[in-house]
Amino acid sequence: MAEETQQDEVLEELEIRSASWYRKKLKYSQIVYETNHETHVASITLNRPDKMNAMSHQLRAELFHALKHTELDNEINVIIIKGAGRCFTAGYDLSGMGSDEPDLGNQYVDTSGVTHWARYVVQQWFQIWDLSKIVIAQIHGYALAGGSELASMCDLLVTTPDCEIGYPPMRSMGVDMLWFPWSLPMRKALELAVTGDNITGEEAYRLGMANYCIDQNDIDEFTEVFAERIGLMNWQMATQYERATKKAYEIQGIKTALDGQAQYAYHRVSESDYARDMSQKFREMPLKEYLNLRDDPYKENKKKLNEILTRQSTKHV
Questions:
Q1: How big is the chain by its Cα radius of gyration, in Å?
Q2: C-beta of residue 125 within 8 angstroms of C-beta of residue 148
Q3: Which CATH fold topology does 25-284 show?
């Protein structure tokens, strides 16, 4: 009976999509892709400025296609990722994801939806880590939540002084990828982890997370010239140094730690009574009202801290 059913059913034939598919130029709707073969630099601009470049499934699918397309271009040595409008990206698009996740790597069928999502996106970001081309994140305005994950996985980072970098959803939902310990000193990483606070681009530069801190008026020009400098070295040489450097962090456990955190920490946080309650409120309340409920206590406390900090000598702060 089962054999008859299988014979009668019309099945779609398996089509193997090889790596050569990424050599194709595709029409993008949510990113802008440009290349300059004279300077060996490609740029990818997240292009949903009316949505603060919130990362929809479509945007991420286009981003990863463009990255892999560039990976196969032997005349490109460096990739810049930046955002159109007033910010880099405010994070994942919570309102317009749709149900079909793009196949960008391991999909991870799991007993917990939150564990599935966290591991899914962490594995995506590690595809940037594993690229042979040097990737520069140029950030301004906001690089929040998933946007901070993207920025942290890029090889080099240029920021504006007032860019806000952090993971506020940790205050109520959890975190997909706890990148703080790998980009910041331990105690600052812990402070961000247990407060959900942001740091500014100026702080990120001072703490060693960013390579350069550049004013908004100059950041486009600076990042382009910086990319040209990196691009003076052929990617076939640079990738050997890049991978040797990253191997030191892999031996220390960066991949194991981030994947393990995605499996366990997010799941345990989401199962707490407070997170369950806030998750229910997130589904029921207008977004602005929900964010005020989540963030207002932290804002009030921050005012008190800042009042004290302004009384301190700068050498003590």
A1: 21
A2: no
A3: 2-enoyl-CoA Hydratase; Chain A, domain 1 (3.90.226)
